[in-house]
Known about the structure:
disordered N terminus, single chain, 5 helices, phosphoprotein, Rossmann fold, CATH 2.40.50.1020, LytR-like, alpha/beta, Sig_transdc_resp-reg_receiver, Two component transcriptional regulator, LytTR family
Amino acid sequence: MTHQISKKYNCIIVEDEPIAAEILESFISRDQELNLVGKCADAIYASSLLNIHEVDLMFLDLHLPVVKGFDFLRKIKNPPFVIVTTAYHQYAVEGYELDIADYLMKPIPYERFQTAIGKFKHLMEAEDALLEVSERDHIFINSGKKQIKIILQDIFYIESLREYIHIHTKAETFTFKMPISKIEEVLNPKMFARIHKSYIISKAKIEVKSANIIQIRGKNLPVGRTYKPLLEL
């Protein structure tokens, strides 16, 4: 075979039992879409791995030295998807609110590992995939297992922060993992305008405007230099 299939998903293993870590590593190496970027035995080292690498999936043992698995997870901002590995049944419920992709009971059979990876890939595809333009008045955005309906009239502005967007609406702010350019493609330019690399606004919601600032809901949003010539507000 001359060409290597490119690996898509970066993983780390957080596991303090060397044999369990080795088994996971061998399972990961069999899947060409998974790329192991680091292994570690405690939460402190895991935090530094998450800072260094773009991690899509973390295999997390709950019985770690010093900081326990779930406590560690609660502290992570924008955590990757997590597959929990544990020898104890009683933790599944606690992890519900933490958006765990799956639980693997040790010792882990390879077939069960494959099922968990299938779930993870489905969630990744759903999260990246996302946008469905329905009628003219709303869009659906997939988030994990849910589809969230957003009424276009309710949107004040959309803000981009690293790989996430925040959609500020009348009732609440929705956060999705998606580039701002992707949502810009499906929004009607009669209703919405890109004013900055990090902002799209609803034209109808403008309260005050000047050459450099547009105010919406009392918040001053900057107008980027490159967007000024395109703005016909």
